[in-house]
Amino acid sequence: MKSEPSASKKWIAGIVAASLLSAVSAVLGLLNWIILREAEQTIVVRSSISRWSWQAIDSFSFLLLGMAWLSFVLFVQHYLMKAPDVRSLWGRALCVIGAQTLLLFACRLAATALGPAGTGLSQTVILIAEGALGTGLSYAGIRLLKKAGHPNNGRELV
Fold this sequence. Notes:
Elements: H1 7-46, H2 54-81, H3 86-114, H4 121-147
């Protein structure tokens, strides 16, 4: 006869799940950092900025994006740890990961639009899949937050 898991076991399981989901978000954020840097480099090369300024802009943006990534990782860790239940935890995680995937899509779309002509079919399919996945994850996260009775009724900006 199985009994209901104790509150401390649920609490520990929630912390482990939040930590693992934070790690997934951190890895995706690291990928975003690289893609954002590539997009920034593409924009700088295509703009009328002096060639002698490129190295300074690249170094500064690398540092700035690194600090933004670290801040985002800490924010996501805190945001997921504060989830009151499992459904809210998954809803919050899906919203965050969906937003990150949409950012990845936007940066790759900008780099593709400004980059060299002739994007291959595989790159186009991956780009469309990123946009669809980001939209789907965000939508699923909002739906879970609504079902969980989130105070903002699932309209919270992540």
